[in-house]
Amino acid sequence: MVLSGLLSRACWTSLNYLLLIGCLLPPGTQGQEFLMRVEPKDPVLPAGVSFSVNCSVDCPHPERISLETNLLKETVGRGLGWAAFHLSNVTGDTTVLCSGFCNGSQIAGSSRVTVYRFPERVELAPLPRWQSVGRHLNLSCLVSGGVPRSHLEVVLLHGEEELGRQTVANEEPVEVMVTVLASRDDHGANFSCRTELDLRSQGLGLFQNHSAPRKLRTFGEGRDCRRWVMSCARVMVPWSRDS
């Protein structure tokens, strides 16, 4: 019964927080004479960090500036027209909401927090023990973890040559596949895959994680290669819809 009560209060707390955001945010904020500033604005942070938020407003008589969030928070400073808070252990995307009163009217502002996390696993699936020349070779890269997925891509490689790339779907784990035509030149060649978390548009960088390479062993002369393609050059096949 105690556990049930705690869960109920937790659910109501989350629900009340969402309702509060819906009530205080636009379109109402568009008509505010004084705007509530939230800094930093829409930060992109690594998972698990702590950071500070400053709420401030320029108005003659500011009152009751507060911060609404589902994160652990601590007030670290307060003055005329501003308040600062320390938020701990950011593990997922969230929104923080600053609110207060100015000349008796309620004002609010928000900041969207985006969390990024590197993949926990990037692994090229085992290759065949022996691969026949002139036959199609399926390459599969397994990826677990990594967010935001909209900025995460998988690249399959033959040595340093890029064979193809694909944005990572939201499934967990994800398998990304590409098919190539094996040639005699591929004997002893290394195949691998890597992930690219591209946060350059967010003012950060391009973060890469590499799988261990796997060496291919081929057999056969490939005399009937022309029955497959016009030449024995490697041929890309479109990404599988099941990947």
From TrEMBL:
<dbReference type="InterPro" id="IPR013768">
    <property type="entry name" value="ICAM_N"/>
</dbReference>
<keyword id="KW-0393">Immunoglobulin domain</keyword>
<feature type="domain" description="Intercellular adhesion molecule N-terminal">
    <location>
        <begin position="33"/>
        <end position="121"/>
    </location>
</feature>
<keyword id="KW-1015">Disulfide bond</keyword>
<keyword id="KW-0812">Transmembrane</keyword>
<protein>
    <submittedName>
        <fullName>Intercellular adhesion molecule 3</fullName>
    </submittedName>
</protein>
<dbReference type="InterPro" id="IPR047012">
    <property type="entry name" value="ICAM_VCAM"/>
</dbReference>
<dbReference type="InterPro" id="IPR013783">
    <property type="entry name" value="Ig-like_fold"/>
</dbReference>
<dbReference type="GO" id="GO:0005178">
    <property type="term" value="F:integrin binding"/>
</dbReference>
<keyword id="KW-0325">Glycoprotein</keyword>
<keyword id="KW-0130">Cell adhesion</keyword>
<keyword id="KW-0732">Signal</keyword>
<feature type="signal peptide">
    <location>
        <begin position="1"/>
        <end position="31"/>
    </location>
</feature>
<keyword id="KW-0677">Repeat</keyword>
<dbReference type="GO" id="GO:0098609">
    <property type="term" value="P:cell-cell adhesion"/>
</dbReference>
<dbReference type="Pfam" id="PF03921">
    <property type="entry name" value="ICAM_N"/>
</dbReference>
<keyword id="KW-0472">Membrane</keyword>
<dbReference type="InterPro" id="IPR003987">
    <property type="entry name" value="ICAM_VCAM_N"/>
</dbReference>
<keyword id="KW-1133">Transmembrane helix</keyword>
<comment type="similarity">
    <text>Belongs to the immunoglobulin superfamily. ICAM family.</text>
</comment>
<dbReference type="InterPro" id="IPR036179">
    <property type="entry name" value="Ig-like_dom_sf"/>
</dbReference>
<dbReference type="InterPro" id="IPR003988">
    <property type="entry name" value="ICAM"/>
</dbReference>
<dbReference type="GO" id="GO:0005886">
    <property type="term" value="C:plasma membrane"/>
</dbReference>
